[in-house]
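task queued by scheduler; priority normal; single chain, no ligands, no partner chains; default sampling; output format set to structure tokens
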Amino acid sequence: MPYIGRFAPSPTGPLHAGSLVAALASWLDARAHGGRWLVRIEDVDAPRCPPGADQLILAQLAACQLLPDAPVQYQSRRGPLYQPALDRLLAAGLAYPCACSRSEIALAQPARRHGELVYPGTCRNGLHGRAARAWRLRTDGAGPVHWHDRRLGAQQQDVATTVGDFVLRRADGLWAYQLAVVVDDADQGVTAVVRGEDLADNTPRQILLQRALGLPTPSYMHTPLVLGANGEKLSKQNGAQALDLADPAAALQAAAAVLGLPVAGGPPGERLAAWTAAWSAV
């Protein structure tokens, strides 16, 4: 199949040094494979997306000459694709409505790593007269998910025991990230996902959803994280500074160094061409 990759930032703020690493890696991987590179703005969680953040991200990418090969897509406009997917899962008995609040889940199950809660399947067998708050995917009986990461190697996770039945549509009516990204990747024909290592933990849930919906599974590669002075990964949530693009070539060089690419001189276009050749040889 023709290679199609994508960069899918959430517009909760401008790109920082860590997000540029993921953007550069996904762009290089597409170019090295002679493929297409898409940009999708993952603004499905609208309350967390300040106005104008999407345009700032696109301007940052353009300053680095990371230009998509097709019009930019917005998750917030793709809701009509998500409902039929949820309906299929419900009809197949693979998803169900849930009436549990977060506090009820916390009382029933201790938190997993990163403070997330493992859902114990309370509503799998019905709501018992309670109103639905969210919709979840059944994970019981799925067994461990095995996959190969192009950088991290062989991976596995038992989603049922480490995550539980995860949310597809939230109590506030918004679509959950896991369902949206799986439907979007399939609809856009994405064959390769290159993204930051902090998102590797999402991969088994997305593979389960792909299998449940009969959708293809792309290849996965998770790139190194950029860490702050405190040893934690840079993120918008912990105050990572926006990229300083007064010198785009320098910002790209810093991102390339995280990816283990050689020093390259010249304007951004020349550097990108050199790094594409280097990436192709890996």
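post-processing summary
- The first strand starts at residue 4 and ends at 7.
- Residues 81 and 183 are 7 Å apart (CA to CA).
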